[in-house]
Design goal:
This protein is α/β, with parallel strands linked by helices. It has 15 helices and 10 strands.
Amino acid sequence: MVPPEVQLLDLTGPAHLFYEANTYGANTTMHYLSLNAENESVSSAGILLGKLRPFKQFELTENDLLFLPGLESHLFFDKNFVTVHQRFFSWLKQQAHNGAKLCSVCTGAYFLGFAGLLTDKNCTTHWKYFKDFQARFPKAKLRSDRLLVKDGNCYSSAGVSSGIDLALYLLEELFGPVLATKVAKEVVIYLRRTENDPQLSVFLQYRNHIENRIHKIQDLLSQNLSRKQKITKLAEQVHMSPRNLTRLFKKTTGITIGDYLEKLRVEHAVQLLAKGSKVKTVANACGLQSSNQLRALLQKHQSVLPSQLARDSR
């Protein structure tokens, strides 16, 4: 959806990620819809966007995603906004009923709210509008502590750049963590996810924060699993004391550095063993001293292993 005075990055960030995903075989088709009958719109930055198609030409299904980017606040603060666009909100509600994934970016969450789709639903929006949003949609469960939120087929993200995180999350959900990782690497961005979302690769988990020092430590750990990491050396990389790094890592991610490293090792080991690598080779690749140490680690985390590996580790 391309509303008038759209925030450009809200729109182009997710669009570019899906474009990149197609180069890795995602095979998606994108359309750009108008909020009204016009086939063009001017962004908040004054850039003209053309070749738009009226929303009423489309009937979405559970195979479709609709991104709802943010727009200038004076538009949705206008008391006539809902009345003027009532047909769109009725259409949007029908698409939700059809099972389409509705994905708001920044203040795009207002579209979901005006359509009556956030009753008893977890959601988020730009921090600047929390108070107004909660007042307008008191039955919505607004999460002020999340970059992105999923509740049913409604997805929402907190601000301009978090639309990119949301697009990455959706790519991982639809096509798996390998493709999502390739796309993230292609556009040189961090991987951020909400820790409350199930069945995420640990390499994508615990990234739902904006503490760049901890992102750097997570990168160092995940990219150097074969090396033994000393807390003093890690702390030096982000100009902190070991004590402060330990405290900040736990506060930011919810787990300790040691627990995070264990999770990385377990998942990496599972991937290598599934490919047929020998146990000793896998142990070395995970920075462990022996095959027995690897077996003990897998035994400890038996509940999260694939059934075959769980049996083999006993």
